[in-house]
Design a protein that fits this description.
Layout (H helix, E strand, L loop, with lengths): L8 E4 L6 E5 L4 E6 L9 H46 L8 H4 L1
Antiparallel strand pairs: 1-2, 2-3
């Protein structure tokens, strides 16, 4: 039994510049080699990004504290509204699954 040679196509990804080896007969990617990136490091930008991230975290924390403070008030209002609806609606016998058959 002789195997016929596997024909592959090597491509470069247009967005990330990775190297791809593709088998056209099977329509699959046989191998993938990521492109090497040279990091753009600017310490001023990194410090600014860290400060902005810290500000966002602090703002989220403040919002969560405010939400916790108002939680009791919100639940009280929801309870009052539900109680009001319950008093206005006539009392009905609940429908059970057994009753539907």
């Amino acid at each position: 039994m002789s195997k016929k040679p596997v024909r592959t196509v090597e491509l470069q990804c247009p967005c990330c510049q990775a190297s791809l080896t593709i088998d056209p007969e099977l329509g699959i990617v046989l191998s993938h080699t990521a492109a090497q990136r040279v990091p753009d490091v600017n310490l001023d930008d990194a410090a600014r990004l860290l400060r902005e991230e810290a500000e966002r975290r602090e703002e989220k924390f403040r919002k969560s504290i405010e939400a916790e403070k108002r939680k009791e008030e919100i639940f009280d209002r929801l309870f009052e509204e539900g109680l009001k609806k319950a008093k206005q609606a006539p009392a009905e016998k609940p429908i059970r699954d057994f009753d539907l058959d």
